[in-house]
Sequence to fold (577 residues):
Amino acid sequence: MSATTLTFRQRGTKLLALREASIIVVALVLVIYFSVVNANFLTGPNLQTLSQFIAPSAIIACGEIMLLICGEIDLSVGQIFALAPFIMAFTDHAGLGMFVGFVFAMIVSALVGLINGAITVLLKVPSFVTTLGTLFLINGFTLTVSKGYPINTPGGQTMANIFGAAGYNEFLWAVLIVVIMHVVLRHRRWGLHTIAVGGNLTGATEAGINAARIKIGNFMLTSMLGGITGILEAFRIGSTDPLAGGTNIMFLAVASGVIGGTSLAGGSGTIIGGLIGATVLGVLQDGFTLQGINAFTFDMIIGAAILIAMIANIHVGRLNRGGRS
Amino acid sequence: MSTESLRATDITKSFGNISALSGISLHVNKGEVLGILGDNGAGKSTLMKIITGYHKPTSGQMFINGEAVTLTSVDHARSLGIECVYQDLALVNTLPIYHNMFLNRELRNRFGMLDHGAMRKRAAAALDDIGVQVPSVDDEVAMLSGGQRQAIAIARAVYSNAKILLLDEPLAAMGAREAGLIIDLIQRQQARGDISIIMIMHNYAQTLEIADRIMMMQRGTVTFEGNARDTSVEALLDIVRREYRAMRAAAQ
Ligand SMILES: Nc1ncnc2c1ncn2[C@@H]1O[C@H](COP(=O)(O)OP(=O)(O)OP(=O)(O)O)[C@@H](O)[C@H]1O
Ligand SMILES: [Mg+2]
Fold:
């Protein structure tokens, strides 16, 4: 190996490190800023609140990142978020217990993902349109079966605590899922093939990769993560609400992925970046809430954050690829 | 002694109402290089994609080592030893070279995890072996030149232990030195004696130099087939001119 080999590689790693580091730096700067302007920011209770802001978008971001990497998106995931805990609750009310309820909720979530994926891949409807359709369908369905009213989340306090109500438990679930998904993306064939399908669909197919299987699988994964998050939140809050989640959590998850460095054009992305992206959004949301800034202003800030992140993402990415777009 | 490794008979392929192939037959023996020439749009790539299981033929039959097979997928064809360097190269720009070299044939450790280290090492060794120079196997393919990309795609197919190797315009983006390296590589494979190579080419002289047998295609049919040593660039061009005149006459 020649000297040029080394310099090329070093330059590559340096820039890659820089790219991820820059998002971490943004997160740290925000943390420092809010802890300086507000003494309540770095306190136990607030950090717990913060962790609860971060967890749901971080979990759903794992799914959206896999979908974005393979060239798709799921707009309906926030509606599965609302539906899944109802399925669990109704199954429990029917006397089958929480565990069976959870399994049913996961089966229904997976089925919705299967439908999203099949319509997108087999019937060739763009996923933006497919999942916009299922978004309304599922929302209507949840409102119908719940008659529009929230109910108490069944199960005892112990169960609620384990699944997110106590301390940092919800965040710990999120970290566990992030670690698993990071391994899937970087160290399993599934992740590599997800990148291949998004990077070059024809080429991946020519190499014998079953692109339909990869895409449909990632739709199912995203729906199930949406369902899991809905259930965790239902446990944490104690009520199961047909209007929980929705497009808000979906957009936060997509934004987390994008801020974290996942390309909307497909073919590249990072799960860890998604967690950092969710942290940035969480810190902004929590910090400004402490400051007493209202929700309208917050939306403007989020919008600006996404734009800045996207611009940085595209341009730092271009540098990284040696100037090629 | 020449044993036949691949035969395809009366292959037709239509895309909707476009007929890309209208009754093509070909065969290739072990240790033989078959060169395919033909106009743009003659159906050469389509024929390759049928042999790799990427397209299903509309009709026709394939035989591998004398046995009739109906390919169900690219993986199926690969399991029978068929490898292809597609005209579009089938490389993923956002993946590093070593992942591209092992695409859909990844090395894994006993826990089912990708063995990045082993793939890196073997990819570097393979490229070194051919004499292809790349800065690092960790670089994204997007950073490479057209010729380097082509070399990666060829190295991938050659180092997969192919028994039937298909090359769709393997020298299209190559400089003279690199083309020489690839021709050398192809001839080394041929010398092994157990591999059959089909290569689609546009340069007549180069084809005659590398191939044992030549097949010419036009608008989905075979217009010439013969031994390379029994023909010449002139003779081949004559056939093309004759076909062209016949076509014009038919059109009038
Ligand atoms: N997927 C497809 N759908 C529709 N038509 C196709 C498809 N693939 C090929 N064709 C058509 O089939 C014909 C043969 O194409 P093919 O790519 O096999 O030609 P070729 O001989 O490889 O040409 P070139 O030398 O330009 O590579 C063309 O008319 C092309 O438009
Ligand atoms: Mg072609």
In short: The longest helix of chain B spans residues 233-251. The pocket of magnesium ion (ligand 2) is lined by residues B 44-45, 87, 168 (CB under 6 Å).
